[in-house]
Every structure is written in structure tokens, then in C-alpha cells.
Amino acid sequence: MQYAQLRAFHAVAEHGGFSKAAQALSLTQPAISDHVRRLEQDFGVKLFERGPRGVEPTELGRRLFSVTRQMVSCERDARQLLDSASGLESGTLSLAADAPDLAVKLIGAFRKQHPGIVVTLSIANAAECMQRVLSSTVDAAITAAPQVHSRLEARVLRRDPLVAMVPSTSSIAKKRKLTYAELVQQPVIFREAQSVTQQLLEIELVRQSLQVEPVLYVDGREALEEAIAQGMGVGVIASAEFNESRRIRMIPLQDCQVEMIESLTRLAERPASNLLNALFATELG
């Protein structure tokens, strides 16, 4: 049994497929498949059920996954311990984020001070980002997910109110401010249920007792912006996330009472790391 085989198995179990595991480990899909196949052959076991809808761990696979989670966590803790004993001239950090803009801005500011550090950034929804931190799959996450877990510590990076996004050709595009009541008189587009933006919007709609029947559900901010740009409806976004466009207008919501709070989050219980400490101390311009 080789470590690479266990690492490949862990990645497939964690990401739910061979293709995503290959991306996570920067390997080819055939290499991942070969590692898992050899591990199964060496011990005469079956670790995954393969079907048209993807792969699922067998009962033995689930038990092995609980072991490899500890293995990966120990590996990361060992690397952090060694990093903490060294300077900041070299090393690696792995980050997850639920949107690229703030994460890239933070990484850029960090690397100006520490150009020898290699940073890996993966994009996932807020819930997945938090799970990756809790499982020690990544060193830290930049996310708007609520920081409610006792094992986590966080630094707030940005607070922003929600704003309306409307097509430039809309009848309300010339307004300086909107209320939610005015907004929902237009065709409304919703984000996916896991979106923190969507969750905040629904809190506001419930607070104001507004009933909305969305005309479209989209997955991701880019899809929301494109649908609005094409005149399909209106939506909301955190003000700092808005990308300037001739086809879309951003309008403040005068009765907004919530904020999108984006934080840099890590496990509080892990060994101190000079690299992570330096990242947490990085100031955004």
C-alpha cells in the first residue's frame, strides 16, 4: 500500500468523483483511477460503487475515509508545524473561497509581502468552504458563511449591504434608491438555496412580509448577472461584488437591514503557522 494510493482514494471520497479528485490533486484522471484500482486489487476489496450517477464509497470505503481524514489532517498539521519553525521565504498555502474577487485581492496583498509563497485557491459554495476548513482539506477559507462553529476562528474582511441589480433598460433603472416592495414588483431572479446572498434576501423578504414568485433560479453570481443583463428580471447582490456593466445598474436598497459579512476563517485548534498568521495579518488596500 502506497501513500499516493490512499491520497487518491481520499480525494475521490471527498470530492465525489475521479475527475474532481484529479483536479484537486493536480493529477490526471487515469492516474487517480489507477491508484484506487491498485489499492482495491492489493487488498482484494471494493471501495467504491461505480454507476451512471458517479461514485459512492462502500461501507468499507466509508470506514477507510474516516481514517484517511485523520491522515490528511495530521499531514497538514505536520507541514504547518514545520512551516512555523521556518521563515516566510517559501512555503505553500491552500485556500477555498465562495467568490474569487475578495480572495484574489487578499492573496495579491499577501504575496506582495511574501512573494515566495505559493497559494492554491479553489472556489466552492459557502457551506463547502466551511466543510473544507473543518476537515483540514484547506488551510483557510474566505467566505460569507456564518462563523458559528466553536472550532473556528475568523477575521472579518468586509461588510456590505445588499443592493438591487436591474437591467439598464428597466423602467426602474433611473431610480436612485429602491425599496424591497418596489423591487419585487419586477420579475425577480433567485440564486441557489446555498447562496448566502439568497439566504439574506429571504430574511429581508420575510421581515417585510413580501411574497415573491421568482421567474428564474440560477446557480452562481455570474449567471445571475448575465440573466439580469439580458433583461430577464432583477436580483440582489452585495454592493462590493457588483461588476460595472453598461447592461446592469446597481441601485441601493433603502430599507436593507442586513449585511454580507465576509471573513477569513481557519481552525482554532491547529498548530500555529507563521504562514497563516501572516495571511491573517495582511491588510487589504
Written overview of the protein:
With 285 residues, the chain is an alpha/beta fold. Among the domains are: 74 residues, Arc Repressor Mutant, subunit A (Orthogonal Bundle), CATH 1.10.10.10; 103 residues, Periplasmic binding protein-like II (D-Maltodextrin-Binding Protein, domain 2), CATH 3.40.190.10. 41% of the residues lie in helices and 23% in strands. Strands 3, 4, 5, 6, 9, 10 and 11 form a seven-stranded mixed beta sheet that branches. The protein has a two-stranded antiparallel sheet with strand order 1-2. Strand 1 and strand 2 form a beta hairpin. Helix 1 crosses helix 3, helix 1 crosses helix 4 and helix 2 crosses helix 3. It starts with a helix and ends with a helix.
- C-alpha geometry: globular
CATH superfamily of the domain at 159-261: Periplasmic binding protein-like II
| Mean pLDDT level | 89
Helix percentage: 40-55%
Helix and strand content put the structural class at alpha/beta
Number of strands: 11
Identify the quaternary structure here.
Answer: single chain
Named CATH topology of the domain at 159-261: D-Maltodextrin-Binding Protein, domain 2
Rg over CA atoms, rounded to whole Å, is 22 Å
CATH class of the domain at 159-261: Alpha Beta
Could you give the distance between the termini?
A: 48 Å
Note the run of SSEs as H and E.
HHHEEHEHEHEEHEHEHEEEH
Can you count the helices? 10
Put the structure in a nutshell:
By secondary structure, the protein is of the alpha/beta class.
